[in-house]
Amino acid sequence: MPEGAEEGTAARPASGASAIPGGKIFISYASQDAGIANSLVQALERADIPCWIAPRDVVAGEFYADAIVHAIDAARALVLVLSQSAAASHHILREVERASSKRHPVIALRIDRAPLPAGLEYFLNSSQWLDTADADPSRAFPKLIDATRGALGGAASAAIDFSAKTVSSGTAVQFSKRDRFIAVIAVISLIIAFLAIGKIWWSPRRTESAQRSLAAATGPAAVPTVTPSAFAPPPHSIAVLPFTNLSGDSQQEYFSDGMTEELINALSHVEALQVTARTSSFSFKGQNIDVGTIARKLNVGAILEGSVRRDGGTVRITAQLINAVNGFHMWSENYDRDLKDVLSLQTDIATTVAQQLRVKLLGNEAAKIEVGGTHVPEAYDAYLLGREISRRGGLKNYRQAIVSFRKATELDPGYAAAYANLAIAEANAAGYTDDAAGLDRARIAADRALVLAPQMAGGYRARFLVRRNSLNFPGALADAQRGLALSPNEGRSYNAYGLALATFGRLPEAVEALKKSVELDPLNEADWFNLGICLLANRDFLAARRAFERDVALSPEDDSGYFQLGVVDLLEGRLEDSSADFRRDGDVSMQQLGVALVEHSRGHERRSQQALESLIAKRAGDSAYQIAEGYAWRGDKNMAFEWLERAVRQRDSGLGEIAYDALLIGLRSDSRYDAMLEKLKLSE
């Protein structure tokens, strides 16, 4: 199956070649092998052997699955690019099975030594193929052309000599009788298993007809029960997988990834769609996992995948939409555009995908996609590079991202999305250095983004972060609310809104918002962490534990989840487990806080005090809030409030947790606690 294939440009047939009469050759391949498949098509068509390859030959508007079936039926032979990716694809098996059922010759070019599944092995057991696993596949093209001519001319495939003596890059492969017997037994077992779960590649009507025929012959008791798949994703749900970079330069990976993320954002503006967020979709990048498995993990009914080829100021995108429930392709298209038109390109793809999913766009949704964008290619490139660098995290990367975003705004002063991301990078960098000037620059950038594009949800999310880090909590809540209203399909909007609600102690509402965030981005560890924080504050310890366990499972290198598991154990009185959890936090200072908490609960006040003093000695300048947590847990209210006052002077963003922090529970009966909430404008 040509999954996500980049269209190949077929050369004109060589003038001296003898033409092959009749139908075309169907080219079957996995998307990862698109380059080899397109080179093969060029070689065959130069030899005057016409080919059918998707997506090149799929007529615009035609259902992809129908086009595949009709092309196989009309073909005179099937040429298979056989690889690990092809072996893992259920679509390849279906294509080979279909060709075999039509008695078409199957000619395979094996490009690696991956083992074959029993089903594919069965349908290839009477065929020979060229084995080029240890050489350049193109060296075997002449022999493959000869084999194809022989097959189309009526010669038995066994008459074609594939021996390594005549083709240095090709090695003959022939099954023994014992191999064939084993393969037959294996595929019979496979077919029985498929029948048991109702996944044979028949239409429902054909399956029902077969059952009625069986009932007539053997009686009702012999009719097998076909159990439908339990997979029932939400309607109009979709995930966009990372588009493959076909630019021939690994340094351009940021561009293909950035284009994919922009498509995710574009689809998120279609209100009737439920779009999986970037973090979850990109968690499958570089993994050889079939579409059905990915869809089940993300709980979506459709998958959009494809490729990006950038060439100077132009870009070619190949996109295809797959029905993840039945594996059929729904639509495919190739786009060749100038980078100046990238906004309209994103709109075109999002609009077509929505139509294919039977979703009607509202009047303003297409327009929303282009809000805040640019028509300056160089600015767009700088923006995508900044996004990629910023995503890596850390002060150094944030500073580099700031340079890229500033460049984008200089190249296009009207580029609102670049200003919004500049604000986020400035705010995150300031969080490392307590740089008040950096927060001011972040605020200016966020405000500029919203002046340029007041309907851009990303601008409000950026200002939410800036205001939260500046302790302007009412302003942050207002921005989170506005961002969600403008973009109700984005997990990021629900995440910001959930955090803003929690800041004011509105925990039940916060939990619901963060559950929605997790639903839209199920593999985002940060969303699980934030949900766990709110569940913990709401004293739902079991659910909080599960959320933090999910967080650390998704991102074992992120230590903060272990600390919060330690807090759960602490509150439940499991001090040994709590101590072990705290030790797994890689931040030595947080480990010291954990020791102070556990040793106090054990009654070891001296050890607790020593640990807290060690924390103060190392982090008094930037961890006043955490020090206050330690004193509050120890019952020293005076010192706890003293350090909370220091946290206010330091503009410690940890104060965003003061209204619900479980470690501060001992302070809530003190009038100074209410006064602190009033001071921070957290009293509603």
Class computed from helices, strands and strand pairing:
alpha/beta
**From the structure provided, what is the oligomeric state, counting identical versus distinct chains?**
single chain
- Give the count of helical stretches: 30
What is the CATH fold-level name of the domain at 25-183? Rossmann fold
Straight-line distance between termini: 59 Å
CATH class annotation of the domain at 25-183: Alpha Beta
Using DSSP, what is the number of strands? 11
CATH superfamily of the domain at 25-183: Toll/interleukin-1 receptor homology (TIR) domain
What is the radius of gyration computed over CA atoms, rounded to a whole number of angstroms?
Answer: 30 Å
Residue fraction in strands = 5-15%
Helical residues, percent: 40-55%
Q: Please outline the major beta sheet.
A: 6 strands, mixed
